[in-house]
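Still learning. Any example?
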Amino acid sequence: MASLERPPAQAPLLAARRFAPLFWCQFFAAFDDNFFKSALALFILGHVGGERGAALATLATATLMAPYFILSSLGGEFADKYDKAAMAQRLKLVEIAGAALAGFGFFLASLPLLFLALAAFGALGALFGPVKYAVLPDLLAQHELPAGNALIEAATFVAILLGSTGGALSMSGGGEPALTAAAMVGLATASYAAARFMPPTPRAAPELPLDFNIARATAALLYEIWRKTRLWRLGLVTTIFWLIGAVILALLPTLVTRELRGSELVVTLHFAAFAIAISAGSALAAYFLRGGIVLLPAAMGAAIGAMVCVDLALTLGGLPPAAQSTPLAPAPYFATPGAWRALIDLMLLSAAGGFIIVPSSAALQAESREAERARTIGAVNVLDAGAIVAGGLVVAGLQDHGAPMWSLFMGLGLVAGASAVWILRAVVIAPRRELLAITLGRAPR
């Protein structure tokens, strides 16, 4: 495995130049993405509203996700062919222009410009995805991959929380376009500045021909990873994480506001708890993997998720009808039956997600061939995007047909339980040895 030379005494990752720039580049980029998405959603509700506003909000989600189906294959080819640090720098430089375009769209109150900027953000995110995960084995030793992945996931979810909150605040009282534009350009510039400090990385496949036939390249990418059974299964484990996570994030606002009658502030508090818990779960998973990369924590995370989903379903199913419909502030909200239990369950569920994503991402990076690593990750990104979209459509369809909230969490629990069994049987190589390795903190023999 190619990697940068490192001194024997290594600094903590967040203090090391080989990793810290990537961390902050991802943090500011995710912050900017979610700031924009949140501000745009409120802009649409404020300027359009009604059924057309809801349709445009759905279109915005599709606009952001579509590039992951279209451009992940090309992003993987670019990252395998060229220096990944240079790729990150170029993409983040273009992102400054995308942020300026978004700010201009807010200033003119132009939906076409805003959607064009949103498509640009989606395209840049799709191209950057293979870079940020494929570069980790170039920057870190194999035993550092779990910690590196945990920090990247923590940066992402904390940035999602802060960005979503900041975007919402930027639109309060109708919004101030100049401040919104300045914030977006400032965040994009900070992401580019961090990328400029990333050390150069080796070109994994400099002779690789680029295939600009997107449909053919994507199909070939998916076929190649499907042929490699181990990588295909590892990719599916990450897809399980994104499927469960996307469904939870989609259901959380409705759960809090309609089932438990919480205010928007209470929803924000739940998102904060979600981000903190998944960061803590990721850190704990990295600690479990300190002796080597094993997949047993992923099965444990799915099993914990299944049990928590069932408990949450039973909690919601046993709640009495709401006595009043006025949104509750935090203090009265947490005095209502089931509120604390629901919050604890959601935090356990998100922490379990960290158990799933950290070992599966680290194993995928470690077990992929260096010359194909970014393309492998690009293929997995396509699977992840498909799971997010499919999960959202299924949940929306069930809600449209009147499915109660408790039944949705019960169904999610069944999916998580089946996933735990499959991971244990098909992905974990030697459960007893892996359990011993976790317990003793050393690589399984």
The longest helix spans residues 50-81. Residues 23 and 356 are 20 Å apart (CA to CA). Confidence is low (pLDDT under 50) at residues 1-10.
